[in-house]
Write a structure and sequence with these properties.
single chain, Aminopeptidase, about 160 residues, binds coenzyme A, globular, alpha+beta
Length: about 160
Amino acid sequence: MSQLLPLTRDDIRPLVALSDGTGFFKPLELEALDEVLTDCLDSADDLAGQEAWVLWEEGRRAGFVHYAPAPMTVGTWHVYWLVVDASLQGRGRGRALMDWAEQRVKGKAGRAMFVETSGTERYLPTRRFYEKIGYEQQGVLREFYAPGDDMVVYRKGL
Ligand SMILES: CC(C)(COP(=O)(O)OP(=O)(O)OC[C@H]1O[C@@H](n2cnc3c(N)ncnc32)[C@H](O)[C@@H]1OP(=O)(O)O)[C@@H](O)C(=O)NCCC(=O)NCCS
């Protein structure tokens, strides 16, 4: 049995560990994740409206998604974090988390969802994933993250 529940303070450490377990994120990114999730619960003013949801399966956390409205826009939202447990990837959970986020955002008069990811070879599966679930590549910001590491921007109209 699976269910989506809103983020609580008890989720933060386990979700950082779950993200670490994917082998995708650098220590600096994991530190940022901790802050992002803490801010989400404390509802930082600049990202008012942000949400994080946890996918639970048989009493364990299987993944999570975090998204927020883009300040100074009309109905534009960003997905900041999306992670599925390493042992559970490739079986529809990422899509289910994104479907949920998109439905929630639509319900708040959201118009478009943006997501940014790395252009490196390592993130090719992530880019394929976003394309598969209906996101269109909008642009590439050359070497935005680091030398040799572009930012790729995707968009989906809601
Ligand atoms: C990216 C991620 C969230 C996707 O979640 P997931 O549960 O593995 O993906 P799903 O099983 O829901 O895949 C949805 C669709 O994308 C496709 N897809 C997923 N991974 C893919 C890959 N490596 N190559 C091609 N297509 C892929 C699936 O085939 C599926 O299509 P289908 O429904 O037609 O079969 C997950 O793999 C993950 O946590 N990766 C590490 C962290 C990360 O990159 N997060 C993104 C933030 S930058």
